[in-house]
Amino acid sequence: MRQWMHRPVLLCGLAYIVVSAAVFGTTAVGPLLIVDPGPGDLPYYLLISLHFLYGLVLLITGLLPTQGAFARRRLYSLAFIPEALFFFGLLLFLFAYVFALNAEMDYVQRFIESGGNLRLALDTRTERAQAAARFLPLMLVNLPVYFYFRIGRRWLADAVLPGSWGFGRFAFGWVAVAVLLSVFAQPSFLRLEGVPWLAWVSLIPLLLVWRFARFGVAWFYGIAYGVTTTLLTNYWLGTFSLVSLQFVTVVFLGYYIVFSPILLLLYRRTRVSRYLTIPFAWTGFELVRSSGFLGYPWALIGHSQWSLLPLIQISDITGVWGVTFLIVLVNAAVAEHVGSRLIGTGRLDRWQGRPLRVAGIALAGTLLYGVVSLTIERNFGPPTYDTARVALIQQNSDPRKHDYDHTLNALTRLTDMSLEHEPDLIVWSETAFVPNIRRWSQEDPQRQYLARLVRRFLDYQEQIGTYLVTGNDDYELVLDEDGNEIDRLNYNAAVLFSDTGERRQTYHKIRLVPFTEHFPFEDTLPWIHDMLLEFDVHFWEPGRERTVFEHPKFSFATPICFEDVFSDEVRRFVLNGAEVIVNLTNDYWSLNELQAKQHFAGGMFRAVENRRPVVRGTASGLTSVIDEFGRIEARLDYYVEDYLVHDVLLRSRGLSVYTRFGDWFPWLSLLAAPLLWFVSRFYDRRSQRVRVGRFYRRFDGG
Q: Is residue 642 part of a domain?
């Protein structure tokens, strides 16, 4: 090895030291000064320190002797670090940039003015410029070192990241492609409707990296793929609260830390059925991340296909999970075919065509089922149906943040206009009317503003002469043995009023948003509970009863806000007798059509799964009516003040397979993945014994 071998390493080390020192200087005394650094700045200072330390290591390495195996091993150990540093910097930059976008949001400014521990510029342009100036130099300095180790010294790249055709050496680029394809397949900032076909190839680069890169590298990139995809898909969570995006990212970081090595082991130690193991395991993983207190079934892979009606009809059997399975199956089959071709071993050549054939048959069968289902419904369905006329009121305001009188004026004005169409039911959105009706109706309207507002609402509802359901706060008293109040449980609720103004039924939201609506570990994790309270979080109690509202014409359930993206939650309402699913949602807070579109894409699957129409009454969109086959029958535009009146068809249908048996398919997937691994290992050992026996028979002349 020539003596000048390490001269580029020396220069790279100097670059790291200079850039990290310069960035630190600008934040300490320069134009990017961080005033009164706090705990929230620790990750940024850690990022600077890691770059500086890595620069020192490169500098020392560049000055050491360059010959021998030991010198090569030193470089082996350093080659992967630039990618890890870049990924760490990227995550912090995305966080900083998202919150820079929200610097002018009213909830942020109110929090700052109230003395909250948050530091943001007064305008988003300044804050975005600061985020770029602080993070981009640290991120960009990693790129020359990355390309030096991958291109400048090819022998080193092949040794450090083995694997043919660049899936090991250039894993960073391949995984970046997988991230972008996965993000853009969903409704995204690139295209609001999403690009569904991208999902069918989005995982191929990741799977090839998993197959050919070293185990540790593949594990890292499984984590990098999952966390980066989560951040880019859910960036709008930065407008929901001051902590939502951080908690979702940390939770998914934990998911992928655990999920990636399990999937890698199943993937690498399975041969013949590898292309089946991956989709089963991935489907099971999506069930796991959608369950429990931390459950968040947002932007599932299957949701990307929301607009392809023939494809998603299979959901009435498998739920949305079957669509996810099919997409991952196609990705895994193509990746297996490509990988086998690249390896070119004779043993695998026999199986090269099988994955594609199996995936093709599964896709064709799913499409055939969907086409037949839609054709039978269109041509052979009952000629007449009962209908219920529903008026959806979209007042285009955030009831909790705008003036209560202003919101009520908009609601009553739009409702008056809709009454000309004689609706059977009027639907107001989640907490469209904020003051607690149960509480303030018992107070003197002459002395309390909120009591006057409640009295005005009740008088109005009584005189319109039709049923009305609205989101509202509610509470329940906890009494001691003597009847004295010892606690008051607060709920996010939906309330149904009759055509005579009588309060008929109330539903308390069961599935609350973790960390921002509910945190059940106050006693075991008090420091997290106190931190959430410091960041202006208000908690609800979860409801206990799945209320089905009874209207003279039909029965309906009201999953509130993101409850409608939980397949099993909505299914249980249908089992209780709901004929129509009426989702009450307030997505105004995001000030972003993308969030509302992703919410719609996830929620509309409940119509197909349960073969029940879905009615979405929202504050700002996407207000819509969806039939039981997923077709949008009517809708309003985003962020407009308007109303929608539509006759909802009430078909007499039995329970679908999914409604009867629930999440049977993803649970089966959780069992099938390790079973396939076991069967494959048994087959591999048997095949090896057969090949050895044939060899000895030839050797003996048998």
A: yes
- Could you tell me the two tokens for 155? 């022998």
- Catalytic residue numbers? 430, 509, 561
Residues 374 and 393 in one domain: no
Buried b (16+ CB within 10 A) or exposed e, 102-141: bbebebbeebeeeeeebebeeebeebbebbeebbebbbeb
In whole angstroms, give the CA distance from residue 694 to residue 702: 9
Q: Which of 107-116, 465-474, 531-540 has the highest mean pLDDT?
A: 465-474
Instruction: Judge if 574 and 688 occupy the same domain.
Output: no
Cα(144)–Cα(281) distance, rounded to whole angstroms? Answer: 37
- Looking at the fold, whether 254 and 337 belong to one and the same domain comes out as yes
The rounded distance, in Å, linking the Cα atoms of 175 and 207 is 9
Q: Give the list of residues 6+ apart from residue 376 with CB closer than 8 angstroms, or none.
A: none
Range of the domain at 423: 386-510+546-661
Determine how β-strand 555-557 pairs with β-strand 580-585. parallel
- Please tell me whether residue 501 adopts helix, strand or coil conformation: coil
Phi, psi of 221 (to 5 degrees): -75, -20
* Domain C-terminal end among 132, 160, 188: 160
Rounded distance between C-alpha atoms, residue 97 and residue 103, angstroms: 10
The rounded distance, in Å, linking the Cα atoms of 30 and 275 is 54
Q: Let me know whether 668 and 651 are in one domain.
A: no
Whole-number Å distance between alpha carbons of 122 and 119 = 10
Q: Minimal CA–CA distance to 32: which of 133, 113, 105, 103?
A: 133
Residue of 525, 612, 616 whose CA lies nearest to 563: 616
- Are residues 559 and 433 part of one domain? yes
d(CA 663, CA 681) in angstroms, rounded, equals: 28
Cα 468 to Cα 320, 419, 505, 541, 623, distances in angstroms: 31, 12, 11, 24, 17
Same domain, yes or no: 368 and 480: no
Same domain? 264 vs 297:
yes
Q: What is the pLDDT of residues 193-202, one digit of tens each?
A: 999 999 999 9
DSSP state of 518: B
683 is a domain residue: yes
Which pTM does this prediction carry? 0.89
Partners of 494 in the beta sheet?
A: 471, 507
CATH of the domain at 431: 3.60.110.10
Tally of CB atoms within 10 A around 521:
10
517 within a domain of the structure (yes/no): no
Write out the two tokens for 646. Answer: 């539509």
* Amino acid identity at 318: T
Burial of 426 (0-12, 13-18, 19+ CB in 10 A): buried
Q: Residue holding tokens 């990618």?
A: 83
CA distance 157 to 169: 6
Question: How many domains is the chain partitioned into structurally?
Answer: 3
What is the rounded CA–CA span in Å between residue 377 and residue 372? 8
Q: Residue 652's pLDDT is what?
A: 73
Residues 374 and 395 in one domain: no
Confidence of residue 310 (pLDDT cuts 50, 70, 90): very high
d(CA 548, CA 397): 27
Domain boundary among 108, 140, 160: 160
Q: Residue 584: inside a domain, yes or no?
A: yes
Using the predicted structure, report yes or no on whether residue 692 has a pLDDT greater than 50.
no
Distance in angstroms (rounded) separating the CA atoms of residues 599 and 593? 10
Contact 607, 627 (CB under 8 A): yes
